[in-house]
Specification:
Elements: H1 15-32, E1 40-44, H2 48-58, E2 65-69, H3 74-84, E3 90-93, H4 96-104, E4 128-129, E5 132-133, E6 136-142, E7 145-148, H5 160-175, E8 181-184, H6 190-204, H7 209-214, H8 223-236, H9 246-249, H10 254-262, E9 267-271, H11 276-283, E10 291-294, E11 306-314, H12 319-328, H13 335-340, H14 358-369, E12 374-375, H15 392-405, H16 410-428
Parallel strand pairs: 1-2, 1-3, 8-9, 11-12
Antiparallel strand pairs: 3-11, 4-5, 6-11, 7-9, 7-10
Length: 432
């Protein structure tokens, strides 16, 4: 998941989404009344700089393209358009689960990607339903990174135990008023906490378990889930771990957590994805550039690699939409965004030399050399279990975080969270 790439539960169509969908449909109708063929219409979650970059991308397409920013709740926007019979030609979706759901409802057109479309292992099969491909990845996010300034952290931890030891040492120093807190965390955004959980689970689970859980074929009450939550409790429960304490962290949103590190320097480390640098560029103080280290595993060699991404789909009946999606899946379509920086391609056929952004160039190389990547688990879960504000996995992880920082014994907090996860999975039809 990304800061903007989340959707509300399926049944909720907000008035704002309905109005936005109606306005976009009216614009498309007006365009269609002209003598020239109407533009290919694309709905996206992006706004601001990302929206501008994508418009530069489709500006190189051989036909007119109209890009509509659907807002954070693109699922509600698209459902309203579907009900009105005015679906766009193409949509860029932030969750693979939506691709599969829309495909099974018959809303999407089967796709054939460009011949240069090549993915790292772990992403290839997530956009298919009943053996047919209905989406292609067009943007990736590397979600296994810690950010820090070398002047504040000369020797980053290389294992989970080293991270815990460092957090305890820096936490004690912070409590004595002799330094910043060790960790910033935007716990007010539930997706931040699910990202933590997914990295730890990917490290401790036996081969196949993470994927089975995502497919709804595994039991959430397994020892792996207990172990992952116990590890998080061990770290999050460290006294002095967060600026202002754990309860303050529950009120801290993602962007503010980045600012705590790159501007105020009230914390030494921040865990989150490569898109942290979008916030860092705006708020960083001083010439020093933040650097990254991989989310540490149990051993130096054990470094989980979690990825997220945005997928393009074409709606049923739109041959022009399918052609545009095929073009977007090619290795050269996103050159304007590559040159501008802030873009990581899921397509491993894109030459590393095409990346002007050195951070993304290194992360793109990691995608090529990883034995396997695991896709964001919560983005693959069905229905409300996937999470949204106060709902599903987001809410469960926030309850768990609150228990831990309030001093509830780790075993009790873990048992409660495991029970909630298993119940939510059963309710959503996504596991046990």
């Amino acid at each position: 998941m990304t800061p903007v790439g989340r959707a509300a539960p399926a049944a909720r169509l907000s008035r704002r989404a309905l109005l936005r969908a109606a306005a976009a449909a009216s614009a498309a109708t007006v365009a269609g009344c002209a003598t020239t063929p109407p533009a290919v219409q694309v709905a996206v979650v992006w706004s601001g700089g990302e929206l501008a970059r994508f418009r530069e991308v489709v500006g190189n397409y051989g036909a007119d393209v109209q890009v509509i920013s659907a807002g954070n709740d693109i699922d509600a926007f698209l459902r309203a358009r579907q009900l009105a019979g005015t679906s766009p030609d193409v949509a860029i979706l932030p969750r693979s689960g939506l691709v599969v759901e829309y495909a099974r409802r018959g809303w999407l057109r089967e796709l054939t990607p460009a011949t240069s479309y090549a993915l790292p292992p772990g992403m290839a099969d997530l956009l298919s339903a009943d053996g047919r491909r209905y989406g292609v990845w067009v943007k990736a996010a590397h979600k296994s990174l810690f950010w820090y300034f070398p002047s504040m952290l000369p020797a980053p931890p290389r294992t989970w135990d080293q991270l815990v030891t460092l957090t305890r040492r820096l936490g004690a120093r912070a409590l004595s008023g002799d330094g910043p807190a060790p960790l910033a965390i935007g716990a007010a955004d539930g997706w931040v906490l699910t990202d933590w959980f997914e990295n730890v689970l990917a490290d401790v689970a036996p081969p196949g378990y993470y994927e089975a859980l995502a497919r709804g074929e595994a039991d959430w009450r397994s020892p792996s889930v207990h172990t992952a939550l116990d590890r998080l409790a061990e770290l999050w429960g460290v006294d002095g771990a967060f600026p202002g304490g754990g309860r303050r962290a529950l009120l801290t949103q993602y962007e503010e957590s980045v600012i705590q590190v790159v501007h105020h320097r009230r914390a030494t480390m921040l865990f989150e994805a490569d898109f942290v640098d979008d916030v860092s560029r705006r708020f960083r103080r001083g010439p020093e550039q933040p650097e990254t280290f991989r989310f540490p595993g149990a051993r130096v060699a054990d470094r989980p690699l979690i990825v997220g991404g945005d997928a393009a789909v074409a709606f049923a009946g739109s041959a022009r939409g399918a052609e545009l999606v095929r073009w977007l899946s090619g290795g050269s379509a996103f050159q304007p965004w590559l040159r501008a920086g802030g873009y990581l391609s899921p397509n491993v056929s894109v030459p590393l030399d095409d990346y002007r952004d050195p951070v993304r160039r290194r992360l793109a190389a990691e995608l090529r050399t990883a034995e396997a990547v695991r896709f964001d688990l919560s983005d693959r879960l069905p229905g409300p279990f996937t999470g949204s504000d106060g709902v599903g996995m987001w809410r469960i992880m926030q309850d768990f975080f609150a228990d831990v920082v309030d001093g509830v014994p780790a075993g009790s907090a873990t048992r409660r969270a495991v029970g909630q996860l298993a119940a939510a999975a059963r309710s959503a039809g996504g596991g046990r």
